[in-house]
Amino acid sequence: MQAFVRAQPDTVKVAFVSYWSVGDSWRFKVTRINEQWKEGVMTKKDSSQYIGKLEVIDSTENAYTLKWGLENTLLSSLSLTPQLRDRLSKYSSLEIIYNTSEVGDFTGVENWQEVGTTMKEMMNELVREREKESGKDQDGLKKYMESLMAVYGSKQGIEELAMKDLRYIHFPFGIQCVMNEPVLYEEELPNMFGETAIKGDAKLILESADTIQKRCVLVNQMKINSDDAKRLVLEVLKKMGLKDQELNEEIKTARIDIFDNNRFEYFYYPGVPLKIEVERKSVINISNKESWRIDKRIIELTE
Which is it for the CA torsion 168, 183, 206, 65, positive or negative? Predict the structure, then answer.
């Protein structure tokens, strides 16, 4: 990789603003990697990859409208017979229409009802065809599809699940950073064990910038807030049904940690990502048995 030309640190300032025009388009290769570890041994590793095309389809003084065309990764991840995959081929791709502000930060999905209807039709047809093939009720598959339908049935669910990769693409927009001046802020994380969100202590660091090529690297790091980590441990232990004496003993050594280490390499003018590397490590130690999960995403500009 070409080395960056570094200007004087105390003078470098980068603002992430979109300078796009109708008809602009880019293709990205998206790689997802998930690892699960238990006591130092990897117990599971999954990976998948797809190509997504991003296109600017409208532009006004205050907003952009974009189209994200991608492979239906839910369908491609399922183990299907060639015949069934062929019958469901009409669902093999998705188009998501969404809006951003004038500086490029995400504001909302526009065609969420259409996306939700398509996914629901696909899931219902999948269950029917599986039952025809096997001659048996597919109760397990039905329950899994019903849980997914609940997610795809809402605008929020589609934005959080189907658009996760897009949210990373738009993450820096609207941010301004100065070299050697980290930006500290508080982030909210979903809580799988309770209703109250978890706080994370996060920071943004402008790692490098080339003011000639208009290219930079922004690093985003996060660690779960220590007080919220203790609260989360307590919620987990209570859900395990431990009695007071057992709980008091376990809480001495139990630990939950969540770390994010994300790297965004961009042409900050006109506002296009070259490579985004996202990694979250979640660690849980209960009864002196440690396990962890690593979720990675790599988004690379291909053309």
Answer: positive
CA-to-CA distance for 48 and 61, rounded, in angstroms? Answer: 38
Q: Which residues contact 100 (CB under 8 A, 6 or more apart)?
A: 18, 63, 64, 66, 106, 107, 170, 173
Beta bridge partners of 176: 15
Is residue 224 a contact partner of residue 245, using CB atoms and an 8 Å limit? no
75 or 223, greater pLDDT: 223
pLDDT, tens digit (0-9, with 9 covering 90-100), for 168-215: 999 999 999 999 899 999 998 877 666 678 899 999 999 999 999 999
Find residue 215's DSSP bridge partners: 210, 267
Q: How far is CA 224 from CA 171, 229, 230, 295, in A?
A: 19, 6, 10, 16
Closest CA to 223 of 251, 255, 268: 255
Burial of 152: CB neighbours in 10 Å, binned 0-12, 13-18, 19+: buried
Predicted structure pTM score: 0.84
